[in-house]
Amino acid sequence: QAYLSYSNIAALTRLARKPGWDITRTLDNVKIWTHEEGAVLSLKVEMQVKVPSQVAFSLLSDFRLRQHWDRHFLTCELLQAVSEEEKIYRVTSAPVAGHQPGDFVILVSQRQPCRPQEPYMVAVRSVTLSAVPPSPEFCRSEILCAGFQIHSTSSSSCTV
């Protein structure tokens, strides 16, 4: 468990720091980058937010709140609180273009910064949990590496 949690945070950190991100769009306070490596396309979205970084962190790290602001999340159920920083959720998502609704079983790892220049981290990856096997009503999907890095820019704003 400790290795999986560590590798979850490390994978998000490595992905965000990779060289070769190409900016594809800038819209108001939102920037979108892409990174292609072989057959893998990664996306990075950056947004300036007018809330303190610790507030953004508390809102983004509790995935049960996400269905209130992410139209793709239909439900989010906490399956297991592995620790205060590690939680396993089952998320269901709406069907896309006539397909079945989707579901994910994910590990969400959160870390507060050790030093002021470090970001808050919320890392996400799919896990297998024998208590929650795939269901015929849902298309089980997988998240290899996703999450949020929250950098404080002032006492009242941050970059996500």
From TrEMBL:
A UniProt-annotated Pfam family: START
Transmembrane spans: none
This protein's superkingdom?
A: Eukaryota
Cite the PROSITE patterns for this sequence: START (PS50848)
One Gene Ontology molecular-function label = lipid binding
Cited InterPro entries: START-like_dom_sf, START_lipid-bd_dom
* Domain START, residue spans: 16-160
Q: What is this protein called?
A: ACO12 thioesterase
| Gene this chain is encoded by | Acot12
